[in-house]
Write a structure and sequence with these properties.
By secondary structure, the chain is mainly beta. It is 6% helix and 27% strand. It contains three helices and 21 strands. The strands form seven sheets. Strands 12-11-16-17-19-18 form a six-stranded mixed beta sheet, with no helix packed on it. The chain is globular and about 60 Å long. The N terminus and C terminus are likely disordered.
């Protein structure tokens, strides 16, 4: 198993713009910011002009741990995967899981039980079925725009595969579901906190990591996330500016009045009036499935040579079968 230990000073949570329910610069003031968060003019997806919080971050610094991802052999245990074929569910990446996939026509290992691992950022087309594990590039910077005064859109925006969801308080981008093995023949392994490295070299979340333990317990998966977790904690902000929390409300109860995007209007620890916000689900992956508000144009850009957000337009598609 491979595990990478990197550095991070946690982003400090401070006063939020409670009256609007939106993000404030103090929420993201942290050591991993390249520059101090700033307020800039931005254009929203509906063509209107607005004010956005601009965040330029690199990979978090001290004590931020990622991995494991792909196990090297049957005798090792890697991260997580949500399998959507026969016997669907959330699994640890181990010998039993890969044997099950082989019985369904997807063989990721050789005769000695060695897992076929490839780097999706290498530019090489992998042969057969491979477990994908990209290399981390700590020089990659990400630039994000979040509306400071969120407002509802005329219609919700569905979040498909690897769609842009938001940014966590630790400065790590949040994406929707990773590509299915059934579609690509390859498995982009997630670690036990629900994240992995993009082909462009930056780490990102595919889950609400601060409440992933609730989802794993719900699906009876034995895995520990190194990050401190709490079902009612603020995890980050969606690209429409609305806050994202764990599965529980401020009083510890699980809300039963969520809309199609897993959001509702209610009290939070950071607001003194009821505001609209999202909640994680109790199943993995536990992110909202749509965004209710209006997002900014060009809201996620990186200096990576490839992958999602690359400025040269090279968005890497899932590897072909």
């Amino acid at each position: 198993m491979r595990r990478v230990t990197l550095a991070s000073a946690a982003l400090t949570l401070s006063t939020i713009a409670a009256q609007a329910g939106g993000a404030g610069a103090a929420d993201f003031a942290a050591a991993n910011a390249i520059t101090a968060p700033t307020l800039v003019a931005c254009t929203l997806s509906d063509g209107s002009e607005a004010e956005c919080l601009k965040l330029v971050t690199s990979f978090p610094a001290e004590a931020f741990r990622i991995g494991p991802f792909c196990p090297e052999t049957f005798d090792d245990t890697g991260g997580l995967w949500v399998w959507d074929g026969d016997n669907p569910g959330t699994y640890r990446l181990d010998g039993a899981f890969f044997r099950m996939l082989s019985e369904q026509g997807y063989t990721f290992y050789d005769a000695d039980g060695v897992i076929n691992i490839s780097d999706p950022g290498s530019g090489q087309r992998p042969e057969g079925n491979t477990c994908l594990e990209a290399m981390l590039d700590t020089d990659v910077e990400t630039t994000v725009l979040i509306p400071t005064e969120p407002r509802m859109a005329d219609a919700a925006t569905d979040l498909g595969t690897v769609a842009l969801v938001g940014i966590a308080l630790d400065g790590v981008p949040i994406f929707a579901d990773a590509p299915s093995v059934l579609e690509t023949g390859h498995l982009p392994a997630l670690d036990t906190c629900g994240g992995h490295v993009d082909p462009g070299g930056y780490y990102h979340w595919h889950a609400t990591a601060t409440d992933i333990e609730t989802a794993l317990a719900h699906e009876d998966v034995a895995a520990d996330c190194d990050h401190e977790t709490s079902p009612s904690d603020l995890f980050g902000y969606a690209y429409d500016g609305y806050a994202m929390y764990g599965s529980a409300d401020i009083d510890g109860t699980v809300p039963d009045n969520l809309d199609q995007c897993s959001g509702h209007v209610g009290m939070t620890a950071e607001s003194d009036t009821p505001v609209y916000h999202y909640h994680a689900s109790e199943t993995f992956p536990n992110l909202p499935t749509c965004l209710a508000g209006v997002t900014a144009r060009d809201n996620f850009v990186t200096n990576a040579a490839m992958g999602i957000g690359a400025q040269n337009g090279r968005r890497t598609p899932p590897p072909p079968q």
